[in-house]
Every structure is written in structure tokens, then in C-alpha cells.
TrEMBL record:
One of its GO terms (molecular function) is sarcosine oxidase activity. Its cofactor is FAD. Keywords: FAD, Flavoprotein, Oxidoreductase. The keyword Methyltransferase does not apply. Transmembrane segments: none annotated. This is N-methyl-L-tryptophan oxidase. It comes from the Bacteria. Residues 8-346 form the FAD dependent oxidoreductase domain. Pfam families: DAO. The keyword Iron does not apply.
Length: 365
């Protein structure tokens, strides 16, 4: 007797991209089983924490359409759930030399007085200009992740936390997935496993490097950190890009550095050391004067990086029933629901030529 598949699609990973893929697929009536090896709210990946940045300012125009899809998808999720998930604050992205960011309605500002007018709370270093992005803002990351999972479940997706995916193999009708709970069969598999994606798709592993990234969040309600005095920001330094998120909706000002130690994801990321905390506090005090930098939250997360910081999204040539959404390189959360929609399109066999610049084919996968 022929066994019916357990699902149309199995999703490996319930971070923002796996959750968004599960939601988008389930909305379309697909039978979805989504698995995550860790419990809800875990801090082992890169989707935890209260806030993330969203911006239209990007290094290359090839990103602009996908960025636009991201803004549209967040608005649609807000309408669907009735929740406020994005706060528009504007952003300033400081650089020395030539500007490295562009985007719709973004402008380069060189005059120190104009920089101070546009964002009074940010101390832009002497000799720096900045790209001003009026559309930039803050994503409510924790709320967004929960909202995507609720949407997925409300449309019938099964979300199973604490279940590890050990491997998969192609079959004549799709894929067989081996898990802690036994085998699952499905027509498609989505690998959105973050830092563990290389273990599930070995061909990916040489392209990926996992970094430990640290952030500090300080007490909410401080005038120096509230919009419109402060928006999202970054300062491009040789030692690593500093990024900051203002105190939108009581979340506190958050700062981090876009560089870190190479890390084994099988080992929980060490919390910031006293020396690392002191360094983060010094940066925050320098860039946002007037803040009490006493931390109320210190976080370590894992970025899964590619050398060119472009994602890897698409089917595998050797197993087209497997769709990868990986390597979001520290800037992927803002694309969450747009990546979910892209994955659903690819699972449905719909071409997404607009994503050639981040495709698996581009990587020879």
C-alpha cells in the first residue's frame, strides 16, 4: 500500500525565515510541518531579541526591488494581524570617503550642521558624511516572529519545537526527512536552518562562516534615544560597522558591532565578557551622548555569513525539491516575510528571476 506523504512541505528551522515560509505556504493551502531543534524563544540563532533595523539604503541597486517587497510584506502582515510591527524613524548611515549605500529617496549628507538637524541625537564622527534614509525604521522582531508563527498555525501548519532534523534524502515523489521523531515524507523540503544549514546541505558549508555578534540595550525612556531625536544608524569603521536602533515603543536603544569571533553553532554563544560590555558602552556613549549606558539586556547571537554578504535562496540543482533560504549575513530579518513569500513561490514552481542575485544557481548549487 502506498504511503501518503506526511506533508506537502517540511520546513527545517523556525527562525524568521522558516516561520515566514511556513506562514506563506500555509496561507496557500499547503500542508506544512515546520520543525526547530530548540524550544520557542531560544537564543541559539539570530532571530531572537526585541528589535531589528529595516532600511531602503543598500549597497547595490540590485537589492532595491527585494527591499521594496520587504516593506510591502511587512505592511501586509500588519494588516493581517492587526499588530504594529514596524516603526518608521528615518536612518543615518555614516561613512568616510565614498558613500556605499543608495536607495529610493536616500540622499548623501556631508554638512555637519545638516547631519545634526536630521538626527540630533547621533554624534557623527568628524570627517564623515552619511546617507539619510527617510523610510528606515525599527522592526518589532519578537512580535513579528510570534505573529508569523500564529499565522502559520492558524492556516493549519504544524509547528514542532524541540525536534531536530538530522538529514534528508530525495525520493521518487519528493523527499524523506529524518528527525528526532522519526521519518517524514513530503513533496518539498525548505532548509531555513540558519547556522546549521551547512550541516543539512553540505554543499553550502564551504560558503558559510558563523560569527558571534554582541549587542547592548539600555534603559527605555531616555530623551537622547527617542525618535525623532534618534533614528536607526550605523557608522562604518575599519574595525567593524557599528549599528544602532533607537528606543521605539519602549524597547530601549540597542547597539552592536557587525563583526565578531568565528563560532561553532553547536556551542552556545558566550555572553559578552566584562571587557566586551565596556567596549559596547564606550561606543554607545560616543555615538549617542547623554544616554545612561547601563545595560538592561546583553545579547549574543550568531550571524551566518557569506563572503559577499548576499543570501543563498533557491532550489538545489541536484535536488530541486529542496529549497534553501540561508546565509542572511546579519541583514536578513528585515526581509523575513518577503523571503517567506519567495520560498513559497519556489516551492510552487514559480520562477523568481528577481532573486538571481542571491540564487543557489549563482553559487553553483
Amino acid at each position: 500500500m502506498t504511503r501518503h506523504p506526511d506533508a506537502d512541505v517540511v520546513v527545517a528551522g523556525l527562525g524568521v525565515h522558516g516561520s515566514a515560509a511556513a506562514a506563506s505556504l500555509a496561507r496557500r493551502g499547503r500542508r506544512v510541518i515546520a520543525l526547530d531543534r530548540f524550544p520557542p524563544g531560544h537564543e541559539r540563532g539570530s532571530s531572537h531579541g526585541r528589535t531589528r533595523m529595516i532600511r531602503r539604503a543598500y549597497p547595490n541597486p540590485v537589492w532595491n526591488e527585494f527591499v521594496d517587497r520587504a516593506f510591502t510584506a511587512w505592511a501586509a502582515l500588519e494588516a493581517e494581524t492587526g499588530e504594529r510591527l514596524v516603526h518608521r524613524t528615518g536612518g543615518l548611515y555614516a561613512f568616510r570617503g565614498e558613500p556605499r549605500l543608495q536607495g529610493p529617496d536616500c540622499v548623501v549628507v556631508d554638512d555637519p550642521g545638516e547631519l545634526a538637524r536630521r538626527m540630533p541625537g547621533l554624534a557623527v564622527p568628524a570627517g564623515y558624511g552619511a546617507v539619510h534614509d527617510p523610510a528606515a525604521g525599527v522592526v518589532e522582531a519578537a512580535r513579528a516572529l510570534a505573529a508569523l508563527q500564529r499565522v502559520a498555525a492558524s492556516h493549519g501548519a504544524q509547528l514542532r519545537h524541540g525536534v531536530r532534523v538530522h538529514g534528508w534524502e530525495p525520493t521518487a515523489t519528493g523527499v524523506r526527512v529524518t528527525t528526532d521523531d522519526g521519518e517524514l515524507t513530503a513533496g518539498r523540503l525548505v532548509v531555513a536552518a540558519g547556522s546549521w544549514s551547512g550541516a543539512l546541505v553540505p554543499a553550502l558549508a564551504p560558503l558559510l562562516e558563523v560569527w558571534r555578534i554582541l549587542t547592548i540595550t539600555v534603559r527605555t525612556g531616555q530623551p537622547a534615544g527617542l525618535p525623532p531625536n534618534l533614528g536607526t544608524f550605523s557608522v562604518d569603521r575599519p574595525e567593524g560597522l557599528v549599528f544602532g536602533i533607537p528606543d521605539a515603543d519602549g524597547n530601549g536603544v540597542k547597539l552592536g558591532v557587525d563583526a565578531g569571533l568565528v563560532w561553532d553553532p553547536e556551542r552556545p554563544a558566550d555572553p559578552p565578557s566584562p571587557q566586551e560590555v565596556a567596549g559596547l558602552r564606550e561606543l554607545l556613549a560616543g555615538y549617542v551622548p547623554g544616554l545612561d549606558t547601563t545595560p538592561v539586556e546583553l545579547t549574543a547571537c550568531l550571524y551566518t555569513m557569506t563572503l559577499d554578504r548576499r543570501f543563498v535562496i533557491g532550489p538545489l540543482a541536484a535536488a530541486p525539491q529542496v529549497v534553501v533560504a540561508a546565509a542572511c549575513s546579519g541583514h536578513g530579518f528585515k526581509f523575513g516575510p518577503a523571503i517567506g513569500d519567495a520560498v513559497a513561490d519556489l516551492c510552487d514552481g514559480k520562477p523568481r528571476d528577481d532573486l538571481d542575485f542571491v540564487s543557489t544557481a549563482r553559487r553553483g548549487l
